[in-house]
Design goal:
Order of helices and strands: HHEHEHEHEHEEEEEHHHEEEHEHEH
Bound molecules: pyridoxal-5'-phosphate
CATH topology of the largest domain: Aspartate Aminotransferase, domain 2
CATH class of the largest domain: Alpha Beta
Shape: globular
Radius of gyration: 21 Å
Length: 365
Amino acid sequence: MEIKYPVYQPQLTGNEKKYVNDCLDSNWISSRGKYINLFEKKFAEYVEIEHATSVCNGTAAVLLALLTLDIKADDEVIVPTLVYVAVPNMVLFAGATPVFVDSLPNTWQMDPEDIKRKISPKTKAVIAVHNYGHPCDMDAIKEICDQNKLFLIEDCAEALGGKIRNKHVGYWGDISTYSFFANKTITTGEGGMLITHSKELIERAYHLKNQGVTSRVYWHDVLANNYRMTNIAAAIGLAQLEQIDEVLKRKAEIAAIYWESFEGTGFEFHQPAENIIHSFWMCSILTEKSGQREPLRDYLAGNGIETRPLFYPAHTMPVYANLPSEGLEIATDLSARGLNLPSFPALSDEDVRFIASKVLSFAGE
Ligand SMILES: Cc1ncc(COP(=O)(O)O)c(C=O)c1O
């Protein structure tokens, strides 16, 4: 059956074409140009942070954050096991070792008590990842990092627009990162951003994303790489940012319909905890039993509805087979029961009701 309802599709209905054509017409197509500066400035204003620097994707943003904080071989970095694999992978690429923590059953985010248990003399940082748009418990995680003198990175790739007590996610991290892949709340095609309160850290990040350039032409004073965003990507990003309030509003409306549809049924909707704004990057549910998830996904696919399983726990993947894997049962259970439903702003109320009704009819509800 042809997919009628994909899990995601970007909304490119604003000034994207106009700004991209401006790049082409003006010859500013590489990583310099007015859209880079404008996008960084407007993005920083939107998330209410002092400094932002753009990068070529969200994976590079995580690696650049680790390198900027001088994370290296022999260091340990605490990460959730229920996570998109780029996060632990970048810890390995930095030469350090990821240490996996379990999830909380209600929010699906990393468990602060498990972070405490996993701290060792080698621990240098924690990466708090706001899975599917629901913020982590940043008060607890920040306190643990402060008490143990650990760096805190927030990976906000999935949570742009998410807030805790009216503060944007990304506020608590020494450095916080974003992805603008095509399925994200705003997209640049491929792209990412690194933000921080610290002038010193943003200057270091800029230096490291830019081949370690100095004011002396072709003189590079450190080993570095090229993680720059193009002006064309930034032009798309700026046009996307102009529409973000509308996109987030529509996503919240879609989530409200799903939430109401699943209330009192055997499906558990991924709902926001108290005092937080869930950005609903993905609207997600849990089946009652793990064995139901794949048959449900097949049934929905047969009705033209695409879904995604929750991430496989990273500790179960071949790359991490030699790392400790005890005490990660909640993440493993969530991963086996969870799925993401179509969550893009162009869905109509009727589309969402239809999708929810198909989920319920699978269960005979
Ligand atoms: C939490 C998280 N971090 C990092 C990334 C990597 O971002 P990108 O695909 O832009 O490299 C993603 C990807 O989608 C993600 O969900």
